[in-house]
Write a structure and sequence with these properties.
The structure is a single chain. The chain is of the alpha+beta class. Helices cover 31% and strands 19% of the residues. Strands 1, 2, 3, 4, 5, 6 and 9 form a seven-stranded antiparallel beta sheet that branches. It has a two-stranded antiparallel ribbon with strand order 7-8. Helix 4 runs antiparallel to helix 5. The radius of gyration is 19 Å and the shape is elongated.
Length: 241
């Protein structure tokens, strides 16, 4: 087993910024995400392809992330500490179960950028609800693909150390970890470097932005970042997976 002095040398806790990301959306990916109760019409498919063509690659996604040592409280269930300077105490609630085996965490924030939202606003007087819906769907695809880069970063670091990875955790989206905790996570990151801001209500702007945490450690068996879907009552019939 590696000593922690060696591990500390392998894990750089300085903030990292990733921009100029090559995120592409294929027309067939967009069409696959369009859920209708009936067969997709030729008009719908043509509109989807044309909408994507008009705004293709206007997005400007960005990522900021940092690694931190991580500990859980032995006396206060759900309480965990990101060993920053000063330390940040998180109240993960039930979600603390997903990072019980974590000795380090990847803390990150990322965004699809504001360009798609701006494009929607600028043409809002001339477009149909369908075009607005397609813009929104394209933005979600860009955000999802950007998030996969973060998953890969966690998986690669865990692989270097011979460790495993936790599921992907995000404030407000998993049971027990309240949205208000997003303020604590984001205090660890230089959000302005990727043009993200956080409001008093703990909501990020642009709208298609997320913060997250992924744990790594010797106690994990998975080498791929998964989700917390297994604890959700809608797991079997969810349309968001």
């Amino acid at each position: 087993m590696m000593s922690y002095s060696i591990i500390d040398n392998l894990i750089n806790t300085e903030p990292h910024i990733l921009t100029d990301l090559n995120i592409e959306v294929d027309p067939e990916e967009l069409i696959e995400r369009i859920r209708t109760g009936t067969k997709k019409s030729d008009t719908l498919l043509a509109t989807a392809r044309d909408t994507l063509k008009k705004i293709n690659n206007i997005w400007n996604p960005g990522i900021t992330y940092r690694w931190f040592p991580f500990t859980q409280s032995e006396t206060e269930p759900g309480k965990s500490t990101v060993q920053s300077s000063p330390p940040v105490i998180l109240d993960l609630g039930h979600s603390a179960n997903f990072v019980k085996a974590a000795s380090h965490v990847l803390v990150a924030a990322y965004s699809a950028g504001n360009e798609i939202e701006e494009a929607t606003r600028k043409t809002s007087g001339n477009q149909t609800p369908l075009i607005s819906f397609l813009h929104d769907l394209i933005g979600l695809l860009v955000l999802e693909k950007t998030g996969k880069i973060i998953n890969t970063l966690a998986e690669q670091k865990a692989s270097e150390l011979g460790w495993g990875v936790s599921p992907f955790l995000s404030p407000g989206s998993v049971h027990g970890w309240k949205l208000e905790e997003q303020v604590k996570i984001c205090s660890l990151l230089p959000l302005s470097k990727i043009n993200i801001s956080i409001g008093d209500d703990a909501v990020l702007s642009p709208f298609k932005s997320l913060s997250c945490m992924i744990g790594i450690g010797t106690g994990y068996t998975s080498t791929r970042v998964g989700t917390t879907c297994q604890v959700c009552s809608k797991n079997n019939d969810c349309e968001m997976k």
